[in-house]
């Protein structure tokens, strides 16, 4: 019985020794992690500081550039605002009393939208300070009025001066009739004409002729010129003033013989001698536009290369076949001589108003005083 027990004890001891030796080998094979040395700590700290410094420098540069950009934008915006304010806002309201009942208050077309309301309000306050009574304002501009005029404002836009289109006679007389009606209502009433300066001068001159204050177009322009420096009016504006003067100063019978309500056929346009408006000064390629009552009826406008060329000495005159264009009312024939670079416009208006639009009752002007 002792033998087996001793054998078992020996076996257990052998197993313990083997396990102990195996554990020792495993411990030797497994290397414990090394703790970082002081030098490694210092290197990592220096690298971290360098990275932080680089990041701070980059952010500082971006911030500095951004602030510089914002400062430049702010400075330029301030300078632009000061320039605009000094250009348009520093002039003050441009108001001229042609007579005690006829006022011109031009508003420049180039005023920025941000200052348009301010300029119009300054104009309105200036008019109220200089005059007493109610006024009706007539806007000849393409830009609508913004202030409140108690339903006494009239939007009557005229064609821009650079468009080559002349305001029709019927339109001018319609505005004059409306002005005269307002002036007759009360002795203290007065009218204000606003819009581009050239159109304001034209409308004021027309009203002076219509109401009988002056008898000649030149006298009307000179009366306006006494109050302000007027711009150079195109020939078509002077032509309309001449026509209106003829209507106002002509008696009923003679006027009835001059005007009619029948259409006129335009067959051709003859220009002699041939204008030399091309680059080589040897001829031209004219563009013709025909307007009747402000509406375009006919034009040769097309590609420049397709326009008919008239060259000297082969073409001593310009003969344009229109093909029987029927016209009535105010007739305007615009001939544009295009030289690719320069655009010289020669405008002339032909007069053919209808008798239906020129009622003699509208020409009784003695009740209107300006």
TrEMBL record:
C2 tensin-type domain span: 261-370
Signal peptide start-end: none
Domain of life: Eukaryota
UniProt-listed Gene3D superfamilies: 2.60.40.1110, Protein tyrosine phosphatase superfamily
Matches recorded under InterPro entries: Prot-tyrosine_phosphatase-like, Tensin_C2-dom
Name listed for the protein in its UniProt record: Protein kinase domain-containing protein
Species, as recorded: Parascaris univalens (Nematode worm)
């Amino acid at each position: 019985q002792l033998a087996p027990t001793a054998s078992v004890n020996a076996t257990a001891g052998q197993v313990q020794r083997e396990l102990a030796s195996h554990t020792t080998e495993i411990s030797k094979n497994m290397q414990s992690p090394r703790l970082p040395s002081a030098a490694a700590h210092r290197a990592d700290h220096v690298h971290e500081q360098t990275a932080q410094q680089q990041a701070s420098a980059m952010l500082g540069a971006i911030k500095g550039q951004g602030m510089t950009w914002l400062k430049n934008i702010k400075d330029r915006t301030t300078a632009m605002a000061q320039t605009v304010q000094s250009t348009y806002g520093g002039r003050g309201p441009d108001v001229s009393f042609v007579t005690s009942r006829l006022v011109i208050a031009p508003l420049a077309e180039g005023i920025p939208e941000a200052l348009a309301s301010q300029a119009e309000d300054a104009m309105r306050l200036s008019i109220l300070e200089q005059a007493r009574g109610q006024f009706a304002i007539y806007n000849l501009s393409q830009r609508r009025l913004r202030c409140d005029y108690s339903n006494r404002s009239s939007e009557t836009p005229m064609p821009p001066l650079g468009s080559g289109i002349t305001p029709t006679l019927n339109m001018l007389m319609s505005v004059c009739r409306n002005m005269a009606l307002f002036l007759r209502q009360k002795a203290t009433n007065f009218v204000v004409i606003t819009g581009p300066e050239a159109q304001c001068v034209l409308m004021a001159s027309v009203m002076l002729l219509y109401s009988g204050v002056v008898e000649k177009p030149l006298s009307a322009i000179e009366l306006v010129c006494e109050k302000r420096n007027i711009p150079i009016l195109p020939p078509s504006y002077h032509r309309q003033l001449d026509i209106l003067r003829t209507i106002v100063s002509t008696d009923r019978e003679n006027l009835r013989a001059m005007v009619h309500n029948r259409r006129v056929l335009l067959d051709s346009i003859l220009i002699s001698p041939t204008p030399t408006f091309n680059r080589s000064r040897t001829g031209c390629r004219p563009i013709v536009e025909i307007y009747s009552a402000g509406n375009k009826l006919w034009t040769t406008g097309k590609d420049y290369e397709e326009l008919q060329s008239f060259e000297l000495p082969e073409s001593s005159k310009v003969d344009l076949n229109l093909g029987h264009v029927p016209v009535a009312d105010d007739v305007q024939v615009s001939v544009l001589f295009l030289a690719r670079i320069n655009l010289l416009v020669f405008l002339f208006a032909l007069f053919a108003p209808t008798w239906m639009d020129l009622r003699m009752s509208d020409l009784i002007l003695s009740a209107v005083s300006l």
